[in-house]
Amino acid sequence: MSDHSAYEEFRSNVRRLAEQKVLPHAAAYDRDMRFPEESLAAFKGLDLVALAFRENVGGQEGDVLAQSIVLEELGRVCATSSLTLMVIWAGLVPIDKYGSEPLREEVIRPAVEGDVVASICLTEPAGGSDLFGLKTRAERRGDEWVLNGQKRWITNATRSDWYTVLVRTGEKSLSLFAVHKDDPGLSFGRREEKMGIKGSPTADVVFEDCCIPGHRLIGEEGKGYAYISESLTWTRVLIAAQALGIAQGALDQALKYTGERHQFGEPISRFQMIRGKIADMATQIEAGRSILYRAASAIDAGEADARSLASMAKLFCSDTAMATTIDALQLHGGSGYVSDFPIERMMRDAKITQIYEGVNEIQRLIIAKQVYAKAEQAA
């Protein structure tokens, strides 16, 4: 996409799909802890899964800004559906970028049709942000690799067809592998009962002498950390987009409720304190949108500041999502505290955006490191 009008037309199409095909099921996904199958089917209407992949494997090669718009509009009505698509991209794009031709043919070409679900497996029981501390290992045995270990908090686990797994292949060497759901030695822990995004299954993924073919190594052996570091810059922007969508959805709900709710003979939207709160929410969301789109553009352009900008976007948009949903729920009064209104679900969904893909405390460290480095260069 090359101009503003094209992005806005694209946004309108995604919003229409979200409101017509995703929104009607959002409450049920949460209430029943049910995977968003209807949303996955709806994504095919605009080839949304294909958006993140290159044209030479059948994808649309959409830029990060277009991807962000999609996740923002889905997050506005259903955080679970937004997360589901984001994690499919997160799991499969490294295969598209670094995998061998046979692996791309095996995994990516079927995926662009929209029926393949994927997971990205990084975190382990003993740690999350310290990737070099991971203990899951892969050993070469003839023409195969054998994986042993356990991954934790894995989104789409039990439902995914493919699992992109970061493992140790040497004392100081990390590598990426693609594991299929039917590979021998792959199993799952119990499904977690979570505070929010309940329609998205989360569970441990366990590898016990899990044998996979040699060509399932993604890219070069020992390059896994570099691949994931690059990927995290991108996915943090996608999480920011999901969070911004949740915030926008919360503001939409607050506007609707305060316009309809009457006290003292007039809608409460006329009250100055209500208007002040709405103004603050709208301002924070618009500021977050500016940071988000700046970070997306930086990734697309390959700018040196992309990593810190991505962390800024993730930090600011997720904090905005949490603050906005809390304020929007407060404006609902007692009605916000019951599940009859979507704002209660939105507040629960917002919290995870401050935690996954690197907790916000880690994002602050990344940002500060870059700020100090630039100051030293300027001195």
Automatic annotation (TrEMBL):
This protein's UniProt keywords: FAD, Flavoprotein, Oxidoreductase
Domain Acyl-CoA dehydrogenase/oxidase N-terminal, chain residue ranges per copy: 7-115
Organism listed in the record: Aureimonas jatrophae
Catalytic activity: 3-sulfinopropanoyl-CoA + H2O = propanoyl-CoA + sulfite + H(+)
Catalytic activity, EC: 1.3.8.10, 3.13.1.4
PROSITE patterns: ACYL_COA_DH_1, ACYL_COA_DH_2
Protein name as annotated: 3-sulfinopropanoyl-CoA desulfinase
InterPro entries, alphabetized: Acyl-CoA_DH_CS, Acyl-CoA_Oxase/DH_mid-dom, Acyl-CoA_Oxase/DH_mid-dom_sf, AcylCo_DH-like_C, AcylCo_DH/oxidase_C, AcylCoA_DH/ox_N, AcylCoA_DH/ox_N_sf, AcylCoA_DH/oxidase_NM_dom_sf
UniProt family annotation: Belongs to the acyl-CoA dehydrogenase family.
Domain Acyl-CoA dehydrogenase/oxidase C-terminal: 222-371
One term of GO molecular function: flavin adenine dinucleotide binding
Pfam families xrefs: Acyl-CoA_dh_1 (PF00441), Acyl-CoA_dh_M (PF02770), Acyl-CoA_dh_N (PF02771)
